[in-house]
Amino acid sequence: GFASEAYDVAVIGGGPGGYVAAIKSAQLGLKTVCVEKRGALGGTCLNVGCIPSKALLNISHKYHEMLHDYAKMGISFDNPAFDVAKMMAQKEKSVKGLTGGIEFLFKRNKVDYIKGWGKLTGPTEVSVDLNEGGSKQLSAKNIIIATGSDPAPMPGGSLVADEKTILTSTGAIALEDVPKKMVVVGGGYIGLELGSVWGRLGAEIEVVEFTDKIAGTLDGEVGKAFQKTLEKQGMKFHLGTKVVGAEVHANGATVITEPAKGGAQSKIECDKILLSVGRVPFTEGLGLEQLGVTKDKMGRVDVDPHTFQVPNFPSLRAIGDVIVGPMLAHKAEEEGIAAVELIAGQGAGHVNYNAIPGVVYTHPEVAGVGLTEEQCKEQKIAYKKGSFPFAANSRARTNDDSEGLVKVITEAESDKVIGAHMIGPNAGELIAEMVLAIEYGAASEDVARTCHAHPTLSEAVKEACMAAHGKPIHF
Ligand code: FAD
Questions:
Q1: Average pLDDT, the chain
Q2: Ligand 1 atom closest to Cα of residue 283
Q3: pTM (2 decimals)?
Q4: Which of 42, 177, 199, 459 is most buried, most CB within 10 Å of its CB?
Q5: Which residues are NAD(+)-binding (predicted)?
């Protein structure tokens, strides 16, 4: 056959894990190639995930604010109107700009980019079915599997997405009209964000969730406040309820539910169903089985938790959504950098899994990092906590956007910050300070004695830290 092209590092998948690993690898002087089948870089996150959903959240929030909050500030206008096609065009513009930006970064850092489906044909061999036809053989001393995830199918198969009536997140970010009523199956962050988008634009939203709470990994107190907030916005919840089937008809569907514990069935009529019951690792057509690479029972590639190496294959590593851990873009990125630093023999090659923030980009936003109160209790950790409501923060009050609170959890004896959880305006940005506190081993007193600009929302974080070891000033 043809001579294969030789690389130090070949990355399969161009999502946040893969493209960041590829750029870092080239920056460290390694000859690097990235194989991506989608036709665009950025993976799930840029193309059908984080970015398009945030574009829609931003636009729908502005419209909702205009309808509901402007009049009291003295701003009025005639005939407010909404154009879904223009919103989608604006979303596309953000996505195109950002995916193009990564392609530019590849060129600038001299990462080779091959558009095609990569398949492992040996521990140091990749065969690519090129999108333009034909194939290409690559050899690489190191291969990084960063093939990401796909929407999970409904357990038991009682609903199957057709992207017309029964949508996955990919369909729900590309609707042509505002549905009259949408049933969201699964109360995780993706369902709640996209439910918020269409709810703000006028859809009636009902969320069916199997467990007894929404966004289950949140700190309990914050989770409860979050549910109340969404209910106030008009979202309806059926907790402890399972979807057992749906009948799709000419202009919508009937969703059939049942109490999770069993009991009488109910029906909900709607015109769209959003299936958001999680995501599953994607390893189709990658050649793992032929090579003998093992996966866990959830289909995730087995790796050494410190080196990301695949057991028995030292040249193979895997990162991001395709391995264990929170399915988040920034987690994938951190792993990508750590894996490449290990390959280059540089750096600590370390990811601190206690300091990975999670954010729900609703309004207000919800953000958390580190241990929740429930986890402290389970793990019998002696902790203290301090909270501060945004209602007592001058900037939040000035902006008339003061729903929510900041809660900081510290180790009782040392005062070290071990968790922070918040719901409130810009919580997704505010959490960064608490991530840094955890990463640096800061005490709540360290943060409380740090000068924060006035008037800013960040003062609520400072005051929650004051409350964790003493008393806040403004509450
Ligand atoms: P992916 O981004 O899935 O990238 C994998 C890439 O590999 C894909 O482009 C795929 O085409 C390619 N690929 C797969 N197999 C092959 C092959 N054999 N050959 C070549 N290419 C291949 N996370 C956040 O942190 N914040 C958010 O706000 C957020 N919002 C989200 C909203 C939605 C609606 C969704 C669906 C997800 C969201 N996520 C968010 C999750 C985030 O998108 C993922 O955690 C992240 O994309 C994982 O990165 P990754 O690199 O591991 O995989």
A1: 97
A2: 15
A3: 0.97
A4: 42
A5: 186-193, 209, 278
